[in-house]
Structure to design on (1321 residues):
């Protein structure tokens, strides 16, 4: 790349050319042209809107490339009043290193990319513009000319949106197209009256371009997006030194037209948005500007049609993007060659002619893509706050590339950009004299430009922040300020150890089961196969604890490389809201993905049924299996079906309470897949419970030996539930602590304490409740018994009981119980569920039953 | 006469003077009385933990120890407080929480979650409420979004992350615990109990219920995880204690502004307690129901009586036995008998006819036609005492009885059934009818006779 003159080397003065276009509704002037004078040198470069420019960047060798969209003066800015709006292009070296592979090929030296990243700020300081450059748009199937003599021509083939490289959308093509179509007008000498552009002239001009193109590149007539500025215009402009590029005017007038359409003020913002695709992100992010996401689908369609058209009408549709490089005049040669007399045919004013042109062309050349007017809407972009991040990222990337970069430059660049941002809200172009005509045109032309301009503001309203659950909320209970106290006394220590949650070092009395499960899982791991195992047993027999222990040991073994490493997943049927949620949980624990139940099922099926890269076995523990039962049993079916596939390498351990669950609730095809590897945990016997207690209370003398034996026997007789056993012991320590208040001698837990604890937990409360109920309640119960005895049934209506009750009360000398009182008594007993009563709307006819055995009631009422 | 009047002139002045004095007294009295009313009303109506606990010291001790262990040692626990309605379950837990929160090191380190089975009618709502009250990170403002499954896994994850020594203990108070057992699969209870039995965030799960058979409602897995601690509140006090409670509930506290007044008041309460008729009233009330809430109700309705009295005159500032008796009467009134008193003679006649039908057909249901026939028989015999109403009028009276729900149709009223033949049942007991008739004003003798026997004409 040649060296460009940058501001570092020569001081340049910037000045506006031409009359400012002032929109009274807006508070700034916009210009069509700017001249850059290099101090010392005599060269003066004129830059017009629509041209492609080089912009001072971090890297002297590769200045930023952009298309000038708008020039304006912003008075609100103290330092840099000259602002410009640009559509950025990005060089390959500016693409983050990590993303470069996405291109999939080696980039050409002069290839740049349309920067399709809305979050990038497009409002820059006009004084950072270095000069013009020529940019040629290439179709997706075109080859970038390698033998170009002109180094200053850059080629656009793809667009880059920070994620992917994409072929230039047809909208962009048409934008170039439109610019080119408008070019004839710009060829008009500034002073000369415009002549109507004739179609032949058009075609001729295009032919010329084509010719030039072919000379410049090896490619045959390939459809290249053409720049609106035709060579002749360029030449003239340069010669005259009074540059007035038609493209500039077009975009400006276009914008003017848009501006003048109804609902102006709002649309203005939208317009500035439209015309300013951004490249360099700036820290501020103009959020006043509306997000106007373009529909990619549409572009795609248009693009394809465009491509087709291109092929058909290759001679007409060459699209060349050209910008003059101001400082170096190498381009000039080409331009001169491309010179062609073009007759501006239209008599009407500049604006009108310009606007009509595309229409005419459309009519004449039906194949011409129609997206002209949409070009204005193409670059709708959202600018976000994230733009700053992007900027930084780009910077870092550049730095990473080792491109030398002067800090000074950066410093200059940044503040300017910031200033421009802050002023951007007010900036707008408007051309008062044009307004009347343009507005009429807009009304005549209901094309998409109108639509887009109208649509944009509607999309503008800022999203009201809807409250939604924070995406990355960490599930956490807040931690306590003060750490929990450690146990002080022997009894407290014992209580801690006796808590069910205390994990013992080993599980006594389950050695056999442990060994079986361990062997099963280990063999599957070693064989790299899958399998199912069904574990049953009543609650509190150590099923889950044993499996956990097995997994812990296996994990240790895996660490020691004794068994291959495996992934362990645990799901619990009780911790699901619905059986199908099991898929979601498994998927999340397996891959960290979140999905809906159905989707998760598909993903899991894919995961298990296809060859994976990692050959790790998965061990899945399904607790409370019976809750995964569904009508179709599809959940169970899948769980047991996956392990049967060779690729799955899935070991499923299932736990449930009932031994015959597979036979009882599973269909044949499900239970057959579950297989016959089953294990049942028997309830603990008293000696086992005793052993468990002793192992937990190792080295602590808190219990009498007899007491331990007693509780073991009691629980073994009741349920064999180890949890019960531990709970009773824990309660006994509390009672012990409570009863012997002597401070230093906490004492042993004796049989008496334990008996009291057992009593508290297992004694039926009915009898005490009856004993403690009021006199009327007791006599009502008696009346019920009497009525039952009379009728011989176990059920009576309230009325029957009431008459018995009245009689009883009379016998016992109690005052006459009114109906309301008796009803209150009855419902009171009913709420305790001593009685089972019907809802009270049946009044006298409600039926009453005892929830306790008659003997118990009699026993309780005896005293 | 004249002399007499003259004589009385100074006396009259005296009276006038004293009345002025008493007026200022009255003002003071009225002030105190309103204060008394405020204090007592707070005591009776609000379940303020300020009031004393009666006869539940052992249970209280158990509960507070348990809570302290959770709060200080981070020990997970679960307990059920079981007792009939009005036995002071909520008061007990409120007391305990209040005392717990007074400990400085505890109050900052404990989270509380209050749930009520009547409000959180399913696990989905309950989960959202728990998340909200714990103020986890997925709470937005005051709301919790997300699906049931998400919330459950989030909450479980949150509780799982904690450990005994470092995370904040959470005290779950589940009011109307029995209603939580009706939730699908008892998922919430399973998870709460499971966490309380595993080395995760320390939890104290406290359930309040009035159902004695609560353990049978728990699913076997849930039951196994529940620690089986139960605290029973059974109102296990006798009448002497009841009297003491009565006295304590009415006595003014020592910090009452006017010592003189409060002394007088308390003295009065003491007298009241020793009064025989008051004791009788209380005994009767005690017989019906032992719970303190009904005592409060008695006293409170009593307070209303007194309020009314106070407005008329401040000369009756203290409670009397009569007030209490009146209140008791209000409490133990038979509501249906009251309705019967307001019926017309025709309606009474119909009810008597129904009673006879019940006697004859042994509680079998009847229809309007049967009742009308029975009524006609009576009218024909005693035409002079009861006006012979036309059938539509009788029908109207019959329908009125139905509206008062003194009779109840056996089946749902449908359009097709003829109303005359719809089967009905009487919702009054014979004794009720007879008692009501005795008090019925201006009841014709014939009707009264007819009521005692359907065969009275023989």
């Amino acid at each position: 790349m040649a060296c460009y003159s940058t501001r570092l080397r020569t001081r340049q003065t910037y000045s506006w050319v031409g009359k400012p276009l002032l929109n009274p509704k807006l508070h700034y002037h916009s210009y069509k042209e700017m001249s850059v004078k290099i101090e010392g040198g005599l060269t003066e470069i004129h830059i017009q809107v629509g041209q492609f420019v080089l912009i001072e960047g971090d890297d002297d060798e590769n200045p930023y490339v952009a298309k000038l969209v708008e020039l304006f003066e912003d008075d609100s800015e103290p330092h840099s009043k000259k602002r410009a709006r640009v559509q950025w292009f990005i060089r390959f070296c500016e693409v983050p290193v990590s993303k470069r592979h996405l291109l999939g090929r080696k980039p050409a030296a002069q290839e740049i990319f349309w920067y399709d990243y809305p979050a990038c700020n497009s409002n820059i300081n006009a004084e950072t513009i270095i000069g013009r450059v020529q940019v040629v748009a290439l179709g997706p199937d075109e080859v970038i000319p390698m033998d170009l003599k002109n180094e200053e021509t850059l080629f656009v083939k793809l667009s880059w949106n920070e994620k992917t490289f994409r072929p230039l959308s047809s909208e962009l093509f048409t934008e170039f197209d439109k610019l080119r179509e408008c070019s004839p007008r710009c060829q008009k000498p500034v002073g000369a009256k415009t002549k109507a552009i004739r179609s032949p002239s058009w075609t001729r001009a295009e032919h010329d371009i084509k010719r030039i193109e072919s000379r410049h590149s090896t490619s045959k007539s390939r459809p290249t997006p053409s720049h609106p500025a035709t060579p002749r215009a360029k030449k003239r402009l340069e010669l005259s030194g009074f540059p007035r590029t038609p493209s500039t005017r077009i975009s400006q007038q276009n914008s003017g037209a848009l501006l003048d359409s109804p609902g102006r003020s709002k649309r203005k913002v939208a317009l500035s948005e439209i015309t300013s695709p951004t490249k360099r992100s700036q820290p501020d992010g103009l959020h006043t500007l509306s997000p106007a996401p373009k529909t990619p689908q549409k572009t795609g369609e248009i693009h394809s049609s465009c491509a087709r058209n291109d092929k058909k009408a290759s001679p007409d549709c060459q699209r060349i993007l050209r910008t003059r490089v101001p400082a170096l005049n190498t381009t000039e040669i080409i331009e001169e060659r491309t010179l062609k007399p073009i007759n501006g045919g239209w008599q009407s004013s500049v604006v009108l002619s310009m606007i009509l042109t595309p229409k005419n062309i459309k009519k004449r050349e039906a194949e011409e893509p129609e997206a002209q007017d949409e070009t204005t809407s193409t670059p709708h972009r959202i600018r976000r706050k994230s733009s700053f991040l992007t900027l930084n990222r780009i910077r870092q990337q550049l730095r990473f590339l080792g491109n030398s970069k002067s800090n000074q430059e950066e410093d200059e660049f940044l503040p300017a950009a910031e200033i421009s941002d802050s002023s951007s809200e007010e900036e707008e172009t408007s051309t008062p004299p044009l307004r009347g005509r343009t507005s009429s045109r807009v009304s005549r032309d209901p094309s998409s430009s109108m639509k887009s301009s109208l649509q944009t503001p509607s999309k503008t309203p800022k999203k009201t922040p809807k409250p939604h659950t924070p995406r990355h909320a960490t599930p956490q209970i807040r931690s306590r300020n003060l750490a929990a106290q450690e146990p002080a006394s022997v009894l407290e220590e014992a209580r801690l150890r006796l808590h069910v949650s205390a994990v013992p070092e080993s599980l006594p009395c389950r050695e056999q089961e442990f060994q079986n499960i361990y062997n099963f899982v280990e063999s599957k791991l070693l064989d790299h196969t899958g399998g199912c195992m069904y574990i049953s047993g009543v609650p509190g027999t150590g099923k889950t604890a044993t499996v956990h222990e097995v997994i812990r040991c296996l994990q240790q073994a895996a660490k020691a490389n004794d068994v291959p490493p495996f992934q362990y997943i645990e799901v619990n049927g009780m911790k699901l809201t619905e059986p199908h949620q099991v898929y979601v949980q498994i998927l999340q624990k397996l891959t960290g993905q979140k999905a809906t139940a159905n989707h998760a099922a598909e993903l899991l099926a894919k995961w298990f049924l296809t060859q994976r890269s990692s050959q790790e076995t998965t061990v899945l523990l399904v607790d409370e299996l019976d809750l995964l039962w569904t009508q179709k049993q599809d959940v169970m079916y899948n769980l047991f079906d996956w392990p049967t596939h060779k690729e799955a390498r899935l070991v499923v351990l299932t736990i449930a309470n009932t031994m015959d669950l597979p036979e009882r609730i599973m269909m044949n095809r499900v239970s057959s897949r579950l297989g016959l590897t089953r294990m049942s945990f028997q309830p603990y016997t008293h000696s086992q419970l005793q052993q468990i207690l002793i192992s937990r209370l190792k080295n602590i003398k808190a219990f009498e030996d007899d007491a331990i034996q007693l509780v073991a026997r009691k629980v073994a007789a009741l349920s064999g539930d180890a949890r019960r056993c531990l709970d009773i012991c824990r309660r006994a320590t509390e009672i012990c602590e409570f009863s012997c208040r002597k401070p230093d001698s906490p004492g042993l837990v004796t049989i008496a304490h334990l008996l009291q604890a057992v009593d508290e937990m297992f004694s039926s409360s009915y009898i005490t409740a009856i004993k403690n109920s009021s006199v009327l309640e007791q006599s009502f119960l008696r009346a019920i018994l009497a009525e039952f005895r009379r009728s011989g049934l176990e059920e009576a209506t309230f009325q029957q009981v009431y008459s018995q009750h009245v009689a009883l009360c009379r016998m016992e000398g109690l005052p006459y119980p009114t109906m309301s009182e008796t009803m209150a008594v009855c419902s009171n007993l009913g709420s305790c569920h001593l009685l089972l009563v019907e809802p009270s709307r049946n009044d006298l006819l409600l039926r009453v039953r005892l929830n306790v055995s008659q003997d118990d009631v009699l026993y309780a009422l005896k005293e | 006469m004249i002399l007499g009047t003259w004589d009385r002139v100074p006396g009259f002045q005296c009276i006038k003077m004293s009345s002025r004095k008493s007026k200022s007294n009255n003002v003071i009295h009225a002030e105190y009385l309103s204060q008394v009313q405020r204090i007592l009303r707070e005591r009776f109506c609000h379940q303020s933990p300020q009031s004393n606990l009666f006869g539940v010291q052992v249970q209280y001790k158990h509960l507070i120890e348990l809570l302290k262990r959770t709060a200080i040692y981070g020990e997970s626990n679960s307990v059920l407080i079981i007792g009939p309605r009005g036995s002071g379950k909520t008061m007990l837990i409120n007391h305990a929480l209040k005392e717990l929160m007074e400990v400085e090191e505890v109050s900052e380190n404990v989270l509380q979650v209050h749930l009520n089975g009547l409000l959180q009618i399913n696990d989905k709502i309950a989960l959202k409420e728990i998340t909200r009250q714990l103020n986890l990170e997925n709470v937005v403002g005051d709301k919790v979004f997300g699906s049931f499954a998400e919330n459950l896994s989030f909450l479980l994850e949150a509780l799982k992350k904690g450990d005994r020594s470092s995370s904040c203990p959470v005290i779950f108070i589940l009011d109307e615990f029995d209603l939580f057992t009706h939730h699908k699969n008892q998922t919430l209870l399973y998870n709460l109990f499971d966490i309380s039995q595993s080395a995760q965030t320390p939890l104290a799960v406290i359930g309040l219920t009035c159902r004695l058979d609560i353990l049978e409602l728990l699913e076997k897995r849930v039951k196994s995880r529940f620690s089986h601690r139960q605290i029973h509140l059974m109102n296990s006090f006798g009448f002497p204690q009841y009297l003491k409670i009565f006295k304590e509930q009415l006595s003014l506290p020592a910090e009452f502004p006017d010592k003189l007044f409060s002394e007088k008041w308390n003295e009065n309460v003491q007298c009241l307690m020793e009064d025989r008729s008051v004791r009788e009233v209380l005994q009767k009330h005690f017989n019906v129901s032992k719970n303190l809430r009904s005592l409060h109700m008695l006293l409170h309705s009593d307070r209303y009586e007194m309020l009314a009295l106070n407005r008329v005159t401040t000369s009756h500032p203290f409670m009397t036995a009569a007030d209490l008796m009146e209140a008791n009467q209000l409490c133990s009134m038979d509501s249906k008998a009251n309705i019967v008193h307001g019926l017309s003679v025709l309606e009474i006649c119909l009810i008597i006819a129904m009673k006879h039908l019940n006697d004859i057909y042994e509680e079998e249901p009847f229809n309007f036609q049967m009742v009308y026939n029975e009524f006609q028989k009576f009218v024909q015999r005693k035409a002079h005492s009861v006006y012979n109403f036309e059938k539509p009028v009788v029908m109207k009276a019959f329908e009125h009885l139905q509206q008062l729900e003194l009779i109840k149709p056996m089946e749902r009223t449908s359009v097709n059934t003829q109303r005359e033949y719809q089967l009905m049942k009487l919702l009054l007991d014979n004794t009720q009818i007879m008692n009501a008739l005795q008090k019925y004003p201006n009841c014709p003798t014939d009707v009264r006779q007819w009521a005692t026997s359907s065969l009275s004409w023989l």
Summary: Chain A touches chain B through 86 residues (CB under 8 Å). Confidence is low (pLDDT under 50) at residues 1-9, 181-386, 402-466 of chain A. Residues 510-681 of chain A form a domain with the Rossmann fold fold (CATH 3.40.50.300). The first helix of chain A runs from residue 170 to 187.
